Amino acid sequence: MPTSETSATTPTTTHHLTQTFRAVRLLLHIISGLIQSAIYPHLNQPWQRRMAKNWSARLLSILRIRLRYQGTPPPPEIPRAMLAANHVSWLDVYSLQTVSPGRFVAKAEIRGWPLLGWLSRNAGTLFIERSKRSDTARINKHIGEALAIGDRVAVFPEGTTGDGRALMHFHASLLQPAVNVGAMLYPVAIRYTNITGEISTEAPFVNISMMESLRRILREPWINVELIFGNPINSSGKNRRELARGAEHAIASALSLPVPHKAPGTPSDRPSEPQ
């Protein structure tokens, strides 16, 4: 916790000129990312990971997102690794990319986002149509292919973003590829806090536009993000529901949150709104 002196002298919002300067730097960085993304698909895997890691780290720096992590991310010698994380913000993707670069499953609407949508497409994001339950089979095929060639793939089993104060039920359907290819599943707990050490109310991407989210983040002097990598879960001999429950319990424990209960009548396999 900060001392009373720190609380008294640390501004709780940034000056308007500072916000504008950061916004300009952000725009220039996104443009540089678009240029880099044009060659990204033609690079080998080590270069792709290095590019994604460096670009994401720079993005967080511009937005004054202070990242730290605990635990052990998937090491290079693990041939097939899948990450399952709770979902709070669009910043989750870039935080994970900074520590463990790979591919992500996102809702199809992101393809239409200005600039970031194009960037996501070129970076190999796997888009799923949330309104089509049948689309799960298609996306799982692509996830399995990515895992088979050694790509890291991250999913958000809650299917939508939350405010960081509670977990939602983890859907199991997108974990089937881990079972199919015998991947190791790495649970990752994500937590955002503000300058006072409390859960951030500015980082969550819930019921707001992308522009409003950026305005909220740019107003903050800084935001802390913590990634907690849990012990990997071997998918051998397990089904996707067991993997989902294992990841759910590991993340709930890491964040000191109660394990969510599935709402009556809600299919446990169906991803509702992947971000």
Could you characterize the architecture of this molecule?
This protein is α/β, with parallel strands linked by helices and 275 residues long. It has helices at residues 4-9, 16-39, 45-62, 91-99, 116-122, 135-148, 176-181, 210-219, 240-255, and strands spanning 65-70, 81-85, 103-107, 126-128, 153-155, 184-193, 223-229, 233-234. The chain is 40% helix and 15% strand. It is built from 9 helices and 8 strands. Strands 1, 2, 3, 4, 5, 6, 7 and 8 form an 8-stranded mixed beta sheet that branches. It has one domain (11-255): Glycerol-3-phosphate (1)-acyltransferase (3-Layer(aba) Sandwich), CATH 3.40.1130. Helix 2 (16-39) runs parallel beside helix 5 and helix 3 crosses helix 4 (91-99). The model is unreliable at 1-8 and 271-275 (pLDDT under 50). Helix 5 links the parallel strand 3 (103-107) and strand 4.
Rg, Cα atoms, Å: 18 Å
Instruction: Identify low-pLDDT runs.
Output: 1-8, 271-275
Query: What's the structural domain tally?
Result: 1
Briefly note the CATH topology name: Glycerol-3-phosphate (1)-acyltransferase
Number of E-type strands: 8
Helices, strands, pairings?
Blueprint: H1 4-9, H2 16-39, H3 45-62, E1 65-70, E2 81-85, H4 91-99, E3 103-107, H5 116-122, E4 126-128, H6 135-148, E5 153-155, H7 176-181, E6 184-193, H8 210-219, E7 223-229, E8 233-234, H9 240-255
Parallel strand pairs: 1-7, 2-5, 2-6, 3-4, 3-5
Antiparallel strand pairs: 6-7, 6-8
